[in-house]
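Progress report, Aim 2. The chain analyzed during this reporting quarter is listed below.
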Amino acid sequence: MNGSSEAKNLPAKWSKTNNVKWVSPLPGGSGATPIVWGDRVFVSSLDNRTKDLLAICIDRETGRVLWEHVLGIGVDDGGRGKNMASPSPTTDGNLVFFLYGTGDFAAVDFEGKIVWQRNLEKDHGKFDILFGYHSSPTLYNGNLYVGVHQRDRSGAEVNRASFLLAIDPATGKDLFKHIRPNQAPDESQESYSTPIPMEWNGRSEILLIGGDCVSGHNPDTGEEYWRWGQWNPKRINHWRIVPSPVSFDGLVYVCAPKRSPVFAIKAGGNGLLEDEGVAWKSEEATSDVCVPLVYKDRLYVLNGDGRKEVTCLEPKTGKAIWKGELGGDAVFRASLTGADDKIYALSEAGEAVVLKAGDGFEVLHRTMLEEWPCRSSIPVADGRLFIRTAGNLYCVGE
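Predicted structure tokens for the chain:
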């Protein structure tokens, strides 16, 4: 859950033709990251023509589509973010779980049989989020977790409080729903982040961020162990959160929005944490969209706007080791991937940049795929990269 992998023998250089094992056409774009399990690649996608929300299974060796299901009807506002196929799928090795911004949720086995199907908006009310629901489900210790961080409008006829939902993956039935209150106004109540599991000093938690705070929850009940939130003391009303929190070695890394600092919060706390709960704050690193990467005892933070800077930090202290610019005109919305002593980045325009992981900024390779928009992170498996563009899934390997 921190963007890193132990995969080896990954390519450092490729083009649209060189080192490409196969290319599988996709019916549309999406911010959903493909997932790989065994000989299968699972992809969520919007069909640009029909607006169908699709669950797709692809053979990892050949790129051939093995099965495909229509699980809902979505919308796309011309690439501005409301693509309802943005949540990434997840799997336990037996079932794969597809969630969409419309609330459509389904479990499908590896042979393509739909095991259960439901709609979360029908059961829990229509989501009230400015750019639509984009959070991915999380599978942890035999439960599915879904976080909904939305506006709870004062005086509204329907209460739309934010909540953490636990679901039985075998049946699709709710196990618990924990309401998560906050003091944030308007859009600052909203979050596009994913629930993140953390284990520290014998305690398991589900981390949530949104509504101007980060919190740790009991995975069995949803009970809140602790919360911290001091990045928006003026209660600015448009500071929605995009990046998920990241945990490593007793710290929880939190990116405050819109060019604000990165904070490291001490794990294991209880109740409302104040200044003593903060291990460090970095004014040198910032990320409004991309989730930070922890890889080989280094914390990498990508600011995908402006100069498109990557900052490498010491995870324990927040001390900046180096900072480098990725360049290019397009923003970066995909989070970094760390594997095989390399850092992989992908811009919206389809430019892939490979950095050397370590104590200095070094670009190993650049290649342009030119298939806008590209918003998915790059998963890796068995010496291969799986790069999703607006129209294709590339399998890259030497």
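The longest helix spans residues 120-124. The chain has two domains: 1-28+293-398, 29-292. These observations will guide the mutagenesis work planned for the next reporting period.
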